[in-house]
DNA sequence: TGCGACAACATTGTATACAATAATTGCCGG
DNA sequence: CCGGCAATTATTGTATACAATGTTGTCGCA
């Protein structure tokens, strides 16, 4: 199974069990352990967490609402399979929203924010150093969310959360090469610019960063499988 | 009861019962029949539609996910009560997204789109002419969604759907006067510009339009009730 | 009279049972 | 040997039962 249950509620803000499942599935997608088309059976997921289908359904419906999962009536929930058009829309939205977020983050960045960003970036570097590709790719996605958090704009942050998760699926489907997509060196410059409050510089770097990510993609409809099975057999 | 069940599935795209409830509640909010803080009891809503709490819960969770409803653990679901900060964020997001949507709509507007827009606008005018304030205010909100639909960008459309619904609550809470907010004459110009493909003009009008809506607001924290009760007693 | 504890009630949270639908398998005829 | 049909199986959709929690009203006491 590619969903691993995290330890859960060690810290204060007690998340409900449905939220834990939601978070774990998003995490699995960000780490590219769960790919497009993967079936998420209710009993199957419920068994992992020891909860009833009621809870699982709540989590899956929430994921579906974010476009990360698709629910087909009477057939079940599957990890979404973004189309080329979806990909274009998602990146268009990111190019629109992220510069604004970045500017606000640079303007708003206090000591706490700087610490948050620095610590996250340290984890990114560490994951890369240790060769933990899964964590590295997830953290590089979450980096953008940390910026949104610092910007202190809940609405944008929620929008971006959805966009980042979908980006992960898009990258998995449409990337040209195996090259790591969200390069850490870009992030280093962003950390520097944001914590220094150089808004204009930060915005420019973010724009470049997003452009480079998108240029790593080849947005042509692939005959890629809804189910992972056929993909394995094709080779 | 301020939620009125619509006839439901007369047309093809069979919506699930949870979706019907979701739509009706959003509609009630857009028509300002449901105000901030109103309790949405599960049994209560279920009784209206003749469905079990299971269905109602799905609808409420979906609404909560959009920030239109707040679910307090073990206490129930309430129509959201946006703060001043929420309001600022929502309108900031609209000022960012809607010009883009408008530009795309003007660029993309074919005969079908023009028809959609014209028909919607006709309904708006009719509601106003007939003095049906509720329908008028709802249609003026939905007008923006029609533009998003024409733009053909699902991602933006979904974002905007959320923003428009929340705007309705914000306007209810923070408007200066009783004046109608989304003036139809603005919409007339937008229809004209979009269907003519005058993108630049349309964008400019939309920007002005949004600014005027926001200027009708007085964004100071009111001691307005979570529950509508205290509001009645205050007078 | 005012306050606090306790009990009765109402509402939500979760699990489970049953119904409905789709997928699978096996069978039969061509 | 293949294709279509039917029975079986698995999975989801919905309702309901029970547990947990919050709320409200009442009673006793200071």
Strand and helix layout:
The structure is a homodimer of 235-residue chains.
Chain A: H1 17-30, E1 39-40, H2 42-49, H3 53-65, E2 69-72, E3 76-79, H4 84-108, H5 111-129, H6 133-151, H7 154-174, H8 184-195, H9 199-215, H10 228-234
Antiparallel strand pairs in A: 1-3, 2-3
Helix pairs in contact in A: 1-3, 2-3, 4-6, 4-7, 4-9, 5-6, 5-8, 6-7, 8-9
The structure holds a DNA duplex (30 and 30 nucleotides).
Give a structural overview.
The structure is a homodimer of 235-residue chains. With 235 residues, chain A is mainly alpha-helical. Chain A has two domains: 63 residues, Arc Repressor Mutant, subunit A (Orthogonal Bundle); 132 residues, GntR ligand-binding domain-like (Four Helix Bundle (Hemerythrin (Met), subunit A), Up-down Bundle). The first copy, chain A, has ten helices and three strands, in the order H-E-H-H-E-E-H-H-H-H-H-H-H. Chain A has a three-stranded antiparallel sheet. In chain A, helix 1 crosses helix 3, helix 5 runs antiparallel to helix 6 and helix 5 packs antiparallel against helix 8. The C terminus of chain A is likely disordered. Chain A binds a DNA duplex (30 and 30 nucleotides) through helix 3.
């Amino acid at each position: 199974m590619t969903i691993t249950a995290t330890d859960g509620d060690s810290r204060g803000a007690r998340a409900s069990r449905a939220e834990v499942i939601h978070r774990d599935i998003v995490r699995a997608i960000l780490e590219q352990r769960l790919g497009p088309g993967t079936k998420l059976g209710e009993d199957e997921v419920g068994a992992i967490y020891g909860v009833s289908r009621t809870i699982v359904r709540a989590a899956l419906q929430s994921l579906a609402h974010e476009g990360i999962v698709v629910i087909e009536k009477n057939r079940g929930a599957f990890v979404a399979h973004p189309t080329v058009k979806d990909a274009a829309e998602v990146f268009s939205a990111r190019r629109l929203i992220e510069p604004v977020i970045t500017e606000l983050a640079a303007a708003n960045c206090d000591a706490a924010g700087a610490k948050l960003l620095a610590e996250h970036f340290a984890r990114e570097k560490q994951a890369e150093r240790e060769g933990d590709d899964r964590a590295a790719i997830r953290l590089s996605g979450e980096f953008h969310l940390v910026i949104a958090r610092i910007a202190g704009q809940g609405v944008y942050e929620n929008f971006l959360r959805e966009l980042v998760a979908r980006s992960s699926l898009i990258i998995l489907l449409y990337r040209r090469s195996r090259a790591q997509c969200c390069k850490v060196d870009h992030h280093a410059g962003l950390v520097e610019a944001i914590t220094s409050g150089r808004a204009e510089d930060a915005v420019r770097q973010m724009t470049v960063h997003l452009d480079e990510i998108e240029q790593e993609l080849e947005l042509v409809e692939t005959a890629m499988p809804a189910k992972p099975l056929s993909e394995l057999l094709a080779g």
